[in-house]
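Blackboard transcription, Thursday session:
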Amino acid sequence: MDFELTLEAVDRDGAIAEALDELTGGTRADFLRKAVIGGSATAAALATPAVARERNTAKDIAILRFDLGLEYLQAAMYSEAERLRQLKPRTLDWARVVGANERGHVRAIRGLLGRNAVKSPTFNFRGVTEDDAVFTKTAVAFEDLTAALLKTQTAQVDSRRVLAALVSLHSVEARHAAWIRHIAGIVPAADAFDEPTSRSRVARLVEDTNFITSTPRTKGRRQPRYTG
Amino acid sequence: MRRTRPIRRSQLGAALALAGVLIGVAVAVVLPDGSAGPSSARPSLPPPPRPAFAPENVALGPDPVAFWAPVLASASARVSPTRSHVVGEIARRTPEGTTNLVLVLGHAKRVAGRLWVRVRFPGRPDDARGWVPRSVLGGYTPVRTRLVVDRARLTATLMRGSRRVLRTRVGVGTPSAPTPSGQFYVRNQLSRYRSPFYGPVAFGTTARSPGVSDWPAGGFVGIHGTNRPDLLPGRVSHGCIRMANEDILRLRRVMPTGTPLTVR
Amino acid sequence: MSDSTNRPTTIDDPLTPREPSRQRAGLTRVGLLKRTAAAGGVVTAGALFAGGLSKPAASQPSAAQDERVVEWLLQVEQLQAGFYTETERRGALRGELRELTERVGEQERAHVAALERMLGAPRANRPAFDFGQATSDPQRFLAAALELEELALAAVNGQVPNLTKGRILTVMGIASVEARHVGWLRDLAGRNPAPRPADVPATQDETRAAIRQTGFTS
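(Written on the board underneath:)
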């Protein structure tokens, strides 16, 4: 038996509104909730998909931007290592697989942040991407620390959906950490409980590496003195 | 009005201790598969919320044509990391005052605790190759474009992968001051200078015309615009590659620093 | 005994297991809506009220729910701890598998102890499992360990959003180590330790089904 209902009446847990947001870009969900199901307006609105924009709190934006910075670094480091092909085969394989994960993280977080996303810094990896032993040591440090940071952040975020996303990323970073440790011949899981860490601790590690650099100046305004 | 849990934790524990019996109450010894106990049919814990983002793996695309790196400190390039014979000097700055660049050839070797890398830098008749310490270079930037100048056809073609992005007619060097053939790269870009002779934009390359000596500022070949488009195409310059001003502006939009240059 | 305190009544049958598929392309309201929209059609209430709608409303974290979550995760950790304890007792493994058994077993037992402490008292009863050859044969051990660790990780990940903020860090500390176990075991087994950029969480029902599938609890 079919009869006319409004979405609001049917959609007790917001699942439908959520789906509509996803389809229509969030601006029309309110209108549609009042609209009658079966009306042509509803069908028309549903027919045009759009990307949903999350309205994130300032705290969540700050957290996600910091994560994005870290993901930029890891993605760039592993991508460069993959390109240069100077690592041992097992390490290179790790860089390839994990790089694909981290590049995926970059893309996804940027997508969520939209115009709130930060740009990637310029990096100088100072040979770390070209030397197996140094790369491995650095990767262990970054993966361990990223997993630790994500723990802290899950306890801080406002949005439950961002929380769920960070949870799903966190265990992947821990997989990365165990794997690279195994490759390096270190115990993959040293303790029964992994500790969280602070944002400032991570910022200090990044600073210590000196990877973030300024953009080189290759443009000028002088009078050309080429041979002509 | 909320109903509280009927059996409290401590009461249950006490009951178990006294009775010494397994009680099939959902709280105590339900097996993790949900079986064993008449009240295992209790509501499940809530499912997790849909995550705010769901990443997918991103594979790297095809290899770039080249990597370039800025030179942080001038260095002597060696024939190999273990042999000190010098094959060339690499300056920190170009004659135009910009940061000098090298192309990174993708070989690294650690010798006596120091990492050395193989690079390409300006030389004669075309680019030279040698090893420098990694520490004298900055970060690596990939380049996906390459410029091909054909002296016979008087054309310049910018390629991106197998795709032709731009083609234009050019002026090249005269027979006595020819544009040299070989492998070079673009290492800087000048603009906002006042010289119609060079057009609005001029790119510096690592090429040097063999017919030109004692030229101030090293005698490097440029790619630039012109106030004499009527001479194009033709063999008219002191080695430089000249194109019409609208073409050099188009080129600027699509040709980044570090782009390798092949002159045939 | 039912705990109806935390969830409002819905039209759904709360005991119906949720579809395991992440796509939810089937009879859920969301899936129906999307498919209808794609087909350019109109959603009827009759279709919306059709059977198989199994998305219970998400509950807000609370101390009472924390307790249920910890009890549940305790069961999952007990299964793992039991597996490694028996393997160590049987003493049939050598080399890295033996080292893993000892180290990981110690860690799982520590997880059990921590969760029990969070509940206020050690469990008076420990369930019994039947692991068969999986605790002595290296190949079966590796396969079983992987199966258990993967389902445990998904279970823990699935519960973190249900916790109050005060409990999240501890449980994340456990999730992290379970994920390390997975990474270690997969590398040992010659499998890609990180095939996906994000781990998929499991609901309680999905984990129960996964545990049933192991055959260790029958």
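Lecturer's comment: Chain B has two domains: 66-142, 145-263.
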